[in-house]
Write a structure and sequence with these properties.
Layout (H helix, E strand, L loop, with lengths): L7 E9 L2 H11 L3 E5 L2 E6 L2 E7 L4 E8 L3 H13 L5 E2 L10 E4 L5 E5 L14 E9 L2 H12 L2 E7 L5 E7 L7 E5 L4 E9 L2 H13 L6 E5 L6 E6 L5 E6 L11 E4 L2 H4 L10
Parallel strand pairs: 1-4, 5-8, 9-12, 10-17, 13-16
Antiparallel strand pairs: 1-5, 2-3, 3-4, 6-7, 7-8, 9-13, 10-11, 11-12, 14-15, 15-16
Amino acid sequence: MSDRLNAHLHYLQLSSERPAALADFYGSVMHMKVQARGADRLCRSVQRRLLITRGRDRGLVAAGYAVPGVEDLDALTQRLRHHAVTLEKAESELFLPGALSVRDPDGNRIIFGIAAMDDDTPDALPARLQHVVVASRNAARLLPFYQDVLGFTLSDRVEDETGALRAVFLRSDREHHSFACFQASEDRLDHHCYETADWNLIRDWADRLATLDIPLKWGPGRHGPGNNLFLFFHDCDGNWLEISAELEVVAPDRPVTVWPHAQRTLNRWGDGLLRS
């Protein structure tokens, strides 16, 4: 069995001071079924799932990555114990019993488990939850944890003219990245992304947002790392959401690409959104 992680982003847990209002946003805009869990909310549709918990606005409570089966979870557990990582049990209706939780050096909680919940709510437009990105005051500290400890594979890195690390893109399957980190002035959630099929569906999502009077904040454009089409908008808490298409599928032996810290790295078609 490979020592590289084999997993996909299965769900995110976000915090909000107004969980019901935030859930209603995802219910209407992202066409997700909303279910109450006390004061919390579960939002789900085909291949997109969010847990929304009462707390501070724009908080990332956890990112849940699904592995294919028990052997993969056992191998990951052994790997984490080898690196003396503190393991916590993680109870979630979105995973079968036995899921485990770890904290990265910034305190972000990452949960690994075997997917438990079927998606029975049809989506008006397809877009699966695909990656999450965090901002960090020390991206260089996070890279070895995700790459060497958790087993993500480095796809691309962004460096400034001095060689300092400004962003990293890591994959856990054949897609270019399922996790990324940007160097920034604070530790926080940067954005989360939903992958759709092609340019026509990027257009259809933009038309849907226009119908709902939700303005685009960035894009359409094309990223350098990942080569994907994108558009960005805000939810009602101010979280950044991305709709992406045609993300690069990476060969196992593909070398790591080093990109310059420049606007054209983040958007080959125009202005970039530099975090630092």
